[in-house]
Design a protein that fits this description.
Helix content: 40-55%
Number of helices: 13
Oligomer: single chain
Distance between the termini: 108 Å
Length: 357
């Protein structure tokens, strides 16, 4: 009788052990995130607690069995150690693997991309589009921080350099080189700016700095000139020729007379035809009235246009005008008489299309 009771106890214990083993195995290792596609992200901000995370997983249809996830999270003490960030959830992921990833803080980087930027506000809108910062967060840090005091963003006013104006905060724009970068979703304003400064320093290597010095421009002045050239043409292949025109003018102390600087000064990007009335504006960005470069960039130049300045084409041109075929390319000349002929052709083409302003 005793043997039968012992045997029955062993059988019951073994059954329970097997049952619990299977249950715990399922809790740990059975797929519980039955999403259709891999690569979905969970976004956890600083204010979220475990209950918020549970709600997010359930509402977004990420988790099949919330109870098993919550149970294991408590066993692994993840519920007491929520780490913010963006984390990829793979299809058919188990509770254990996801909790292990979330608990480790092993985030998946996100991409930020910005180009075609005219000012800091536009930059703020684009650079924060895929991260847990608002444009306001970014701008407040940029404008109110003292971080830029340690960065040389003030022009050198060398032989062919800038107007002698005060430091222009808009020069900070040139710190951000248009490209695609990988960052963490919850990156702070401070670390975002520091990352951009690191990339800026990598780009402005000793070779580029030497080239800028050879033409008596600081890196900021190169950026300002590159912004004007970028506004003049969409064709990077002719950018070095245009750069050569402007450098020739700077050396002879001839006003740049760059139409895009007038459009920037007016703040009206709907202007398609610069008229004499536009040239009368009283602004340091009016390069018809003022010699030298303006005090800041008129957009955020891409790397190709910066290199176009550094590797400008040496020639004797002092003038250029858009071609009348509207190809976006320009015709160049070394004398005013020829330039006026070219300009007249282009003006007639504008008149034909009834573009008067």
């Amino acid at each position: 009788m005793k043997n039968k009771t012992l045997l029955l106890s062993i059988i019951i214990f073994s059954t329970l052990l097997t049952t619990f083993s299977v249950y715990f195995y399922q809790i740990f290792f059975t797929p519980n995130f039955l999403i259709n596609n891999s690569g979905k992200k969970i976004y956890i901000n600083d204010a979220m607690n475990f209950k918020d995370l549970q709600h997010t997983l359930l509402e977004n249809g990420y988790v099949h069995d919330l109870l098993s996830f919550s149970f294991l999270a408590k066993i692994m003490k993840y519920n007491e150690n929520i780490k913010p960030g963006a984390y990829i959830v793979e299809s058919n992921m188990s509770n254990y693997n996801l909790i292990k990833k979330l608990r480790s803080g092993n985030q998946t980087p996100v991409e930020i991309t910005f180009n075609n930027v005219k000012n800091l506000k536009e930059l703020a809108d684009k650079i924060t589009q895929n991260i847990n910062l608002t444009p306001t967060d970014f701008l407040e840090y940029v404008y109110n921080g003292n971080w830029y005091n340690s960065i040389n963003l003030k022009p050198n006013y060398q032989k062919i350099g800038l107007l002698k104006s005060k430091f222009n905060l808009e020069n900070i724009l040139l710190l951000f080189l248009p490209d695609t970068y990988e960052v963490y979703w919850n990156i702070s304003e401070k670390f975002l700016v520091e990352k951009m400064k690191t990339q800026y320093d990598v780009f402005w290597n000793s070779n580029r700095i030497k080239k800028a010095q050879d033409i008596n421009l600081s890196n900021i002045e190169v950026g300002i000139l590159a912004s004007i050239i970028q506004a003049e043409t969409n064709h990077v292949d002719e950018a070095p020729i245009i750069a050569g025109v402007y450098i020739n003018r700077l050396r002879k102390k001839i006003p740049l007379q760059a139409d895009p600087t007038l459009i920037f000064a007016h703040g009206d990007y709907s202007i398609t035809r610069v008229l004499n009335i536009h040239k009368k504006i009283n602004s340091p960005y009016n390069t018809y009235k003022n010699r030298g470069l303006p005090p800041g960039p008129i957009n955020l130049p891409e790397k190709g246009f910066i290199d176009a300045v550094l590797n400008y084409t040496q020639h004797n041109y002092y003038f250029f005008c858009a071609k009348d075929d509207f190809s976006g390319y320009h015709v160049f000349s070394d004398n005013l008489k020829e330039h006026k002929k070219n300009a007249k052709k282009f003006q007639k083409a504008l008149d034909k299309l009834k573009i008067f302003k």
